[in-house]
């Protein structure tokens, strides 16, 4: 006798137990502490914070640990937590000119006020696996430090702006309230503020591939890295009762300003245009990709033909979110047997009709041959 | 509605692209059953004018009025988007130079012809199909091609299919943008012949854009010559072609009509 | 680590009250315009997109302590995702749950409508993956919105026409498009077309939530829901040659179960509650045993 599969509840509970076991790994090894993860896998933590849109290294470290190092799962965990938080205030725009810079490079000028600063970059490391890291590590040397000057470091866009050769920052009307894509549904066509929000939390790999495609001719934008800067920026909020801004704390961010050639249009003179990228933590790759895609998405604004995927708002912005993407791709493993049954029935019926038709045709041919034979 | 009343009234229509003129201050009337050719070189503004009149493009100044089936003359700008679209898919047709712009290349010929019927509420598969087959015959497409997609058709067949797709709802006004452009000469001749027959059988009013004066001669009753966005000469087709008044028109006629 | 101590606390039914009010407003609008997709600010839920986040948010916005919730997936109460969603509401809303269609005040479903007729006062909440019935004909949101606004549904019938021209019949078996109250064309979510007739003039309120796509739509009670068709090719539903092997039902949707590797098959009700009730009432199918 057939008995329908039962016991989903028990199965789920057992699966969770097994998952917890595998997450912990061999018991004879010490468990990772959140401080270790936040301190030593900090770029993983940064990516989780950036794509979850929540700046909290310890919670991000917890997410990485709980997700067994699966980045998208960790992002998902942190986002699900973020949803439950109230939105208390909107900060003032970050003053990135005043940030405490740890790294700053420009590809457009050999030297510039504030100087070029390599900072903690992989760029010139030779990618050779280092056996010294395999065991008990020796204490690394103490890096050189410079005194914090506290002076603003002018942005490359300000230098070009002095000559009037780059478009301005642009502004919304005085009544414009910055959108919030986590509180309002997307509505196409999207203005640039919400587009940038989507890109800032968009999947690093997806943006990287799109940015790469623009360099290979799918929506070319003639980019130069005006500037990349990484460092600590103050977050301030304005308190209406006080009438001035008060600092809340500092966060590490990566900013990229891409400068793009532009021949001018009916409305605009020839000048450089810009693509913008800003990401929580240290993630140059993401900030650069974001700035390339931001510029590509402005095709319409500059009267450029929209011919490539990276220029297509609906395509880029509807598919950039990795938590959405992974959910929908992976939902295919949920049972679909009701729909499949319906399709199975249809294919069987159509196959029967097809066979019947073929048999009929074969019959006709036989008839013709037999006629001919007669 | 009587033949004394124009079907379409265009007054002082202008359209600019930035500082450049697309078409400037164009006015004309079109009568039921009349074929009006707009001729000129490429860049003369004839396609801009066609698009503005057919409200595929927004004019910046001027008016287009159309006599509805109830006899009332209505300004297109006073209609809502829904009403305008309804008009465009029932009482009007638009034949593009490139059939791919006017057809669904991946659905069957039958569905291409039937779409406008279904859009206005036809819900009987058999009748829709019969009508589609009938129209394929009228545009000289073998009816056993009814289930083939236009992708499998030759250029001339695609253009005839596009015409059938437009005429199935018995429109009173059809816009045509270089309908024979891009076809080789023998195919052109056959298509022109077909078009002439359909236009006179159905009493269609047509606004035809062409750079080919021979096409204008064969199809149109009246013509307008455009240069730099302006209409520089208008009149009965035979008169304009046999006795052009403007020097530019004389040049056009002498350079093209050598046959 | 004060941040970590704050984590566990969540509101009744997970969502904060402000969010619930926002969702309720979207639901009210959806009820006021039957079949129209209302955009809403879908929240990130603690379960993956595509796994019922839309349905869960709708349920969370309407559920109260007095409600009795039933959750089904593929018609069954014991499929893992149904179990998981039910457990979620037990945990965050401490709500009473049931597997009996008749006893439930809210039924959240994926891919089926229960066989037992629904009654006034019940709410059926559908989980919807792609709310836009025109999506696979026209991928652009800006275009499809215009098509709905202007009621330009010719393209939908072009697709059905092509089916008949090619196959002799309409070849859509699930997510079969419907027109609601003579106006909006709507995707009924991927239910088999077998279930479509149950939507028509149902006494229950039907709510549809698409979390990833951020849309809510509704069919109010006793509203006409018509499956698109042609006069000479009317809409028909699937019929099964065999009765349910367990309860002998001949008028329910059946799952095919593969019994062995020699082509052995049996068919059983996809609605597990319906099947059990029938067996309890003494109905026995060819392979069943009396309850």
Automatic annotation (TrEMBL), chain A:
GO terms for biological process: organic phosphonate metabolic process. InterPro entries: PhnI. GO terms for molecular function: lyase activity. It comes from the Bacteria. Keywords: Lyase. This is Carbon-phosphorus lyase complex subunit PhnI. It comes from Xaviernesmea rhizosphaerae. The lineage of its organism: Bacteria, Pseudomonadati, Pseudomonadota, Alphaproteobacteria, Hyphomicrobiales.
UniProtKB/TrEMBL annotation, chain B:
Transmembrane segments: none annotated. GO terms for molecular function: ATP binding; ATP hydrolysis activity; lyase activity. Keywords: ATP-binding, Lyase, Nucleotide-binding. It holds the Pfam family ABC_tran. Residues 8-253 form the ABC transporter domain. This is Phosphonate C-P lyase system protein PhnK. It comes from Xaviernesmea rhizosphaerae. PANTHER family: PHOSPHONATES UTILIZATION ATP-BINDING PROTEIN PHNK-RELATED. One of its GO terms (biological process) is organic phosphonate catabolic process. The lineage of its organism: Bacteria, Pseudomonadati, Pseudomonadota, Alphaproteobacteria, Hyphomicrobiales. SUPFAM superfamilies: P-loop containing nucleoside triphosphate hydrolases. InterPro entries: AAA+_ATPase (IPR003593), ABC_transporter-like_ATP-bd (IPR003439), ABC_transporter-like_CS (IPR017871), P-loop_NTPase (IPR027417), PhnK (IPR012700). Belongs to the ABC transporter superfamily.
TrEMBL record, chain C:
The keyword Metal-binding applies. It comes from Xaviernesmea rhizosphaerae. The keyword Glycosyltransferase does not apply. It catalyses: alpha-D-ribose 1-methylphosphonate 5-phosphate + AH2 + S-adenosyl-L-methionine = alpha-D-ribose 1,2-cyclic phosphate 5-phosphate + methane + 5'-deoxyadenosine + L-methionine + A + H(+). GO terms for molecular function: 4 iron, 4 sulfur cluster binding; alpha-D-ribose 1-methylphosphonate 5-phosphate C-P-lyase activity; metal ion binding. GO terms for biological process: organic phosphonate catabolic process. InterPro entries: PhnJ. Pfam families: PhnJ. Belongs to the PhnJ family. Keywords: 4Fe-4S, Iron, Iron-sulfur, Lyase, Metal-binding, S-adenosyl-L-methionine. Catalyzes the breakage of the C-P bond in alpha-D-ribose 1-methylphosphonate 5-phosphate (PRPn) forming alpha-D-ribose. It is an enzyme of class 4 (lyase). This is Alpha-D-ribose 1-methylphosphonate 5-phosphate C-P lyase. Its EC number is 4.7.1.1.
């Amino acid at each position: 006798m057939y008995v329908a599969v039962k016991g989903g509840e028990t199965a789920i509970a057992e699966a969770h137990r097994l998952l917890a076991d595998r997450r912990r790994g061999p018991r004879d090894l010490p468990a990772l502490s959140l401080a270790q993860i936040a301190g030593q896998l900090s770029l993983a933590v940064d990516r989780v914070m950036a794509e979850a849109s929540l700046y909290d290294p310890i919670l991000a470290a917890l997410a990485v640990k709980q997700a067994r190092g699966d980045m998208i799962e960790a992002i998902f965990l942190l986002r699900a937590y973020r949803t439950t938080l109230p939105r208390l205030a909107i900060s003032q725009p970050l003053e990135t000119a005043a940030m405490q810079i740890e790294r700053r490079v420009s590809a457009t000028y050999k030297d510039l006020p504030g100087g070029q600063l390599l900072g903690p970059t992989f760029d010139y490391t030779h990618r050779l696996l280092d056996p010294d890291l395999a065991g008990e590590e020796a204490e690394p040397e103490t890096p050189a430090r410079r005194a914090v000057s506290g002076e603003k470091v002018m942005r490359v866009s300000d230098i070009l702006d002095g000559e009037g050769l780059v478009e301005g920052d642009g502004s919304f009307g005085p009544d414009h309230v910055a959108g919030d894509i986590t509180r309002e549904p997307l509505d196409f066509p999207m203005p640039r503020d919400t587009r940038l929000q989507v890109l800032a939390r968009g999947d690093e790999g997806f943006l990287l591939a799109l940015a790469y495609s623009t360099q290979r001719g799918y929506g070319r934008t003639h980019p130069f890295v005006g500037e990349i800067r990484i460092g600590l920026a103050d977050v301030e909020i304005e308190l209406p009762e006080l009438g001035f801004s008060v600092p809340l704390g500092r966060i590490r961010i990566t900013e990229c300003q891409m400068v793009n050639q532009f021949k001018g249009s009916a409305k605009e003179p020839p000048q450089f245009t810009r693509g913008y990228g800003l990401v929580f933590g240290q993630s140059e790759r993401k900030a650069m990709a974001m700035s390339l895609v931001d510029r590509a998405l402005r095709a319409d604004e500059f009267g450029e033909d929209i011919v490539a995927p990276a220029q297509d708002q609906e395509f880029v912005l509807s598919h950039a979110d990795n938590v959405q993407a992974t959910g929908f791709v992976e939902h295919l493993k949920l049972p679909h047997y009701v729909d499949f049954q319906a399709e199975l029935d249809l294919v069987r019926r159509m196959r029967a009709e097809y066979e019947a038709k073929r048999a009929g045709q074969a019959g006709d041919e036989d008839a013709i041959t037999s006629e001919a034979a007669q | 509605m009587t033949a004394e009343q124009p079907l379409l009234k265009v007054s002082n229509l202008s359209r600019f692209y930035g500082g450049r003129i697309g078409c400037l201050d164009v006015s004309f009337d079109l009568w039921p059953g009349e074929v009006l050719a707009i001729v000129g070189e490429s860049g003369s503004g004839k396609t801009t004018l066609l698009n503005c009149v057919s409200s595929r493009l927004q004019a910046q100044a001027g008016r287009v009025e159309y006599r509805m089936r109830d006899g009332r003359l209505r300004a297109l700008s006073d209609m809502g988007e829904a009403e305008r679209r309804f008009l465009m898919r029932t009482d009007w047709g638009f034949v593009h130079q490139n059939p791919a712009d006017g057809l669904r290349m991946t659905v069957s010929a039958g569905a291409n012809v039937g779409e406008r019927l279904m859009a206005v509420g036809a819900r009987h598969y058999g009748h829709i199909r019969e009508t589609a087959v009938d129209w394929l015959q009228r545009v000289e497409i073998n009816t056993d091609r009814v289930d083939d997609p236009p992708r499998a058709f030759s250029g001339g067949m695609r253009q005839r299919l596009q015409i059938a797709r437009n005429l199935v709802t018995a429109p009173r006004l059809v816009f045509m943008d270089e309908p024979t452009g891009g076809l080789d000469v023998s195919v052109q001749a056959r298509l022109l012949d077909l078009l002439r027959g359909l236009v006179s059988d159905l009493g269609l009013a047509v606004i035809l854009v062409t750079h080919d004066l021979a096409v204008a001669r064969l199809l149109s009753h009246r013509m307008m010559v455009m240069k730099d966005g302006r209409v520089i000469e208008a009149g009965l087709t035979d008169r304009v072609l046999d006795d052009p008044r403007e020097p530019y028109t004389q040049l056009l006629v002498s350079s093209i009509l050598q046959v | 680590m004060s941040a970590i101590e704050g984590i566990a606390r969540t509101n009744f039914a997970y969502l904060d009250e402000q969010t619930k009010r926002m969702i309720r407003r979207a639901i009210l609008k959806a009820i006021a315009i039957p079949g129209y997709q209302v955009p809403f600010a879908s929240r990130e839920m603690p379960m993956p997109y595509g796994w019922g986040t839309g349905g869960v948010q709708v349920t969370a916005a309407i559920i109260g302590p007095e409600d009795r919730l039933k959750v089904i997936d593929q018609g069954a109460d014991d499929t893992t995702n149904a179990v998981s969603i039910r457990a979620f509401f037990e945990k965050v809303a401490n709500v009473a749950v049931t597997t009996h269609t008749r006893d439930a005040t809210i039924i959240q479903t994926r891919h089926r409508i229960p066989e037992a007729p629904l009654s006034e006062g019940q709410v059926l909440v559908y989980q919807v993956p792609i709310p836009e019935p025109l999506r696979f004909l026209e991928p652009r949101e800006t275009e499809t919105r215009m098509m709905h606004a202007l009621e330009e549904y010719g393209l939908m019938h072009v697709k059905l026409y092509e089916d008949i021209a090619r196959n002799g019949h309409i070849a859509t078996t699930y997510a079969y498009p419907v027109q609601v109250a003579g106006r909006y064309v709507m995707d009924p979510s991927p239910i088999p077309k077998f279930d479509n007739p149950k939507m028509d003039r149902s006494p229950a309120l039907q709510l549809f939530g698409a979390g990833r796509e951020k849309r809510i739509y509704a069919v109010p009670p006793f509203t006409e829901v018509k499956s698109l068709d042609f006069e000479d090719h009317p809409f028909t539903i699937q019929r099964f040659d065999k009765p349910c092997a367990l309860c002998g039902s001949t008028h329910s949707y059946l799952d095919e179960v593969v019994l062995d590797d020699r082509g052995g098959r049996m068919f059983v009700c996809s609605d597990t509650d319906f099947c059990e009730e029938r067996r309890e009432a003494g109905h026995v199918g060819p392979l069943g045993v009396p309850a």
